[in-house]
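Weekly puzzle thread! Below is a chain. First person to post its structure in token form gets bragging rights.
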Amino acid sequence: MKNNTTLIHNVLSDYKINIYLKNIILVFLGTILLSVSSKVQVPFWPVPMTMQTFVVFIIGMSYGSKLALTTLLLYLLEGALGLPVFAKGGGLLYLTGPTAGYLYGMMFAAWLIGKFADLGYNNSYLKSLKSLLIGTLIIFLFGVGYLGSIIGFDKALAAGLYPFLLSELFKILLAVALIPNITKYISK
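Winning reply:
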């Protein structure tokens, strides 16, 4: 999981910490941030509006593909084991309920956004925007697709996509404003 192009590596490169210990700490920090962000929510049915996708964006853009994927896999494992890391708790049923598609979509989106970060997309506002739009598309394809198989696709679009479009745009623009600026500042 050693990657010299990601933001987090550049931030922590001056510290003499074993790379494996550094990655373990970052993964656990990421799962904590995901858990906290799931609790920052506006209640909707069947999918609450949370800040999780924003944290997924930040993890993907900052960690790179391997570390981002590891973080999301551990997060899902923590939830499967019953830790209350999801918006309304934890447990195996959460990974098959109405929000399961969004959770799996976040895992793939974090990996793909991380892949773009590995390629240096964080250096450009436009490329960062592109990577986050693709990541968001993945989250909604998985989320709405799975939700549609449970409640029907018309209802899934009405309850699992349309109410979230403006908030997702805000989160995308916020991440695009933050990460390239931080990347440029650190690269000086």
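Puzzle host: Confirmed. Bonus trivia for everyone else. The chain has one domain: 7-187.
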